[in-house]
Design goal:
Blueprint (H helix, E strand, L loop, with lengths): L16 H9 L10 E2 L2 E2 L8 E3 L11 H12 L4 H14 L15 H14 L9 E3 L8
Helix pairs in contact: 2-3, 2-4, 3-4
């Protein structure tokens, strides 16, 4: 695949589409073939790719802004000001300004999927390739 290219994986239920996406994301091991991103073999999760799961993976006890910040907090690569700026940027980008202190249960399903997709961008360094894999992307707003 080339930079900026959009690729779809289509097949019947149970054929391994999600398994393949999880391998590319580094969430599952594989014992045949190879997965390379920018010429480097992958051997686990990395900041150059993220997964937006088919079902909501928001932490119900954290606010929307807290969920956006979660990945950045776990990586411990960003200072407080940078996390605040990046989280605010992505909140505005998806049209959820004003919902920062709301909890996931207070958002519609579509708003939750949008938040998940955009938060996956917040964890990667600026300028890093957009290596998101989406399971059932038609149900999210990447």
């Amino acid at each position: 695949m080339e930079d900026g290219e959009f690729t779809a994986i289509v097949g019947p239920s149970g054929c391994g589409k999600t398994t393949l996406l999880n391998i590319v994301a580094g969430l599952l091991p594989y014992d045949q073939g190879s997965v390379k991103i920018d010429g480097r073999k992958t051997s686990g999760p990395g900041v150059d790719r993220a997964v937006v799961f088919q079902h909501s993976s928001l932490l119900p006890w954290r606010t929307i802004i807290g969920n956006i910040r979660y990945g950045m907090e776990m990586q411990k690569r960003f200072d407080e000001q940078t996390m605040q700026e990046r989280a605010g940027h992505f909140l505005k980008l998806v049209g959820l300004t004003g919902f920062d202190r709301h909890y996931p249960r207070e958002l519609s399903g579509g708003m939750q999927q949008t938040r998940q997709s955009r938060a996956s961008l917040g964890r990667r360094p600026r300028g890093a390739p957009d290596g998101r894999t989406l399971c059932r992307p038609g149900r999210a707003n990447p």
